[in-house]
Amino acid sequence: MFPISVVSQKTGLTPDVLRAWERRYHGVRTQRDDGGRRVYSRELLDRLIVIARLLRAGYRIGDVVELDSQELVERLEELAPSQAQGSGYASFTAGTASSTRSGTEKEPMEAAVQAVLKLDAGALREAAQMALTSHGRLELADGFVFPVIRQVRALQLSRQARSVHLSFAHSNLRIIAGMFLVLSSEGTGNTILVATPVGYGSDLGCVASAVHIHAAGHTPVLLGAEVPVEDIVSIVQDGGGAGVLITFVCEKYDSALYAECLRLREALPLEIPVYFGGRIPETLVRDLVDQGLIQLQDMAHLRSALS
User: Fold this and answer.
1) Within this chain, do residues 143 and 117 fall inside the same structural domain, yes or no?
2) Is residue 186 part of a domain?
3) Model pTM?
4) 301 and 198, same structural domain?
5) Which of 83, 104, 164, 272 has its CA 20 to 30 A from that of 289?
């Protein structure tokens, strides 16, 4: 069972919205624990994650909140394969759909992984172009780039690939993602600084995030990887940014990383939002959210938060 704070963090929906929905709609009714606090089952949490994704795609809450599981799955699959990826979807669709991707939709991913194993940059670009056709520019990161990295990493862990393959995938996919960042024009909104803390490089996440910041109408400033907290703070204090997004990869809870993120949050004015994303343990996510940082679950959530 999950408290409302965790559900809010995982869905991107505020506690006020969740409570209002509970009052209005039968489809999101919660339970109460022994202390009388509302708690959410795994099934309801997964349902809310899917509903939140549909809302970010343009649906109205009244159109989807009372749909059954099968109907929600069908709405999600009508959008794009990448909308049907991510936390909560696999368990939510168990028993209601045998697969979220057809054979043709799997082809770019499989082609990309084979290209990485052969260290074939040309074939990897061709696979990315196929993925672009099916996913669209804004869903390329969540629907193709990051899943390819995860699959190559899994092959490395099972000794079917080497570290050089993972490095090759990172380097070439970063170039591919960067091709879709429009540098010739600036957004009409705020300037958002994008960086990774020292020791936790996630330059691929930085580049992909910049694409979506631009799509949300803002101007991304890619500071790059390995950026000291003091430098980020100085740039903001000089008027160089209205918000900060840090991305990082962390396999297990890291108190040093937590301290760095906390230093950044405490050094900046409260009106400057500090967003974070990446591959992060759930316990670390919870602690960062408790300290006022804003988690971005995926690129669609990033666009929604900045819009």
Assistant:
1) yes
2) no
3) 0.57
4) yes
5) 83
pLDDT reported for residue 82: 43
Q: Which domain holds residue 172?
A: 103-178
pLDDT at 201: 65
Question: Can you give the length of the chain in residues?
Answer: 307
My answer on whether 151 and 130 are in the same domain is yes
Average pLDDT over residues 89-97: 44
Angle, helices 4-11/282-290, rounded to nearest 10 degrees = 100
What is the strand order of the sheet 2-3 is part of?
A: 2-3, 38-40, 31-32
Q: Which of 44-53, 84-93, 220-229 has the lowest mean pLDDT?
A: 84-93
Q: Are residues 77 and 118 in the same domain?
A: no
Structure tokens given for 68: 């059954």
Helix (H, G, I), strand (E, B) or coil at 269: coil
Q: How many domains does the chain have?
A: 3
DSSP annotation of 84: G
Largest CA-CA distance found in the chain, in angstroms, rounded: 59
**178, 213, 242 — which closes off a domain?**
178
Mean predicted lDDT score pLDDT of the chain = 80
* Helix intervals (H) in the chain: 4-11, 15-24, 42-56, 61-64, 69-79, 89-93, 103-117, 121-135, 140, 146-157, 163-178, 203-215, 229-237, 255-267, 282-290, 299-306
Same domain? 151 vs 200: no
DSSP 8-state secondary structure symbol assigned to residue 307: -
CATH for 69: 1.10.1660.10
Last residue of a domain, one of 152, 178, 204: 178
Cα dihedral 177→180→184→187 (10° resolution): -90
With cut-offs at 50, 70 and 90, classify the pLDDT of residue 8: confident
Q: What is the amino acid identity at position 4?
A: I
Task: Dump pLDDT digits (tens) for 131-189.
Answer: 877 767 777 777 788 888 888 888 888 888 898 998 899 888 888 877 765 444 455 67
Place of tokens 């409570």: 19
